[in-house]
Amino acid sequence: RGVGQYLVEEVIRDNPNVSSWWMADVGVEDRSVMAAFMQALGFTAQHDGWEKR
After folding, report:
1. Does the model's pTM come out above 0.85?
2. Domain named PanZ acetyltransferase (GNAT): which ranges (predicted)?
């Protein structure tokens, strides 16, 4: 489990009142790696980014 995953999980856990999260894909160099990372965190691919509800 990488540091990035740990940090995103911590931010989500520390903000229980937030019901929808959005991560834009601006500047993503390797979309397949980013997609795997975001899916591992429970995000769903959307146009121009990923969303978690």
Report:
1. no
2. 1-51
Q: Identify residue 44 by its one-letter amino acid code.
A: T
CA atoms within 13 Å, Cβ hemisphere of 19: 0
For 2-50, write each residue's pLDDT tens digit: 899 999 999 999 999 999 999 999 999 999 999 999 999 999 999 999 9
Distance CA 12, CA 20 (A): 10
Q: Both tokens of residue 44?
A: 């769903």
User: Which CATH superfamily groups domain 3-52?
Assistant: Gcn5-related N-acetyltransferase (GNAT) (3.40.630.30)
- CA–CA gap between residue 40 and residue 28 (Å, rounded): 17
